[in-house]
Specification:
mainly alpha
């Protein structure tokens, strides 16, 4: 039972990163930032980047991935949505 949990957790993590990575490259980006222009990233225009400013783009990308999986838009990924995602990526779920 524990082994199944670890394998499922590993596959889920791998799948999330794969979806994020694939979606990112599908959009034509070769890196996690939409722009490496510091001025664009510096949302409060104070001349420095905080971690929140620096990490905003990857968070936005992950949010898009999450929203894509959350088909009924209830803010949660239920088992059916997760199973559908896994099966769409060739992972057999019973």
């Amino acid at each position: 039972m524990k082994t199944t949990f670890y394998i499922t957790t590993f596959l889920a993590t791998l799948l999330i990163f794969s979806v994020a990575y694939a979606g990112h490259h599908y959009s034509g980006h070769g890196h996690m930032m939409n722009s490496w222009n510091m001025t664009e990233m510096d949302t409060d225009q104070d001349g420095v980047l905080t971690f929140d400013e620096f990490s905003y783009t990857p968070q936005k990308q992950l949010r898009g991935d999450f929203d894509m999986i959350d088909e009924n838009e209830d803010g949660m990924i239920d088992k059916d949505e997760w199973t559908q995602l896994l099966e769409a990526h060739g992972v057999m779920t019973n």
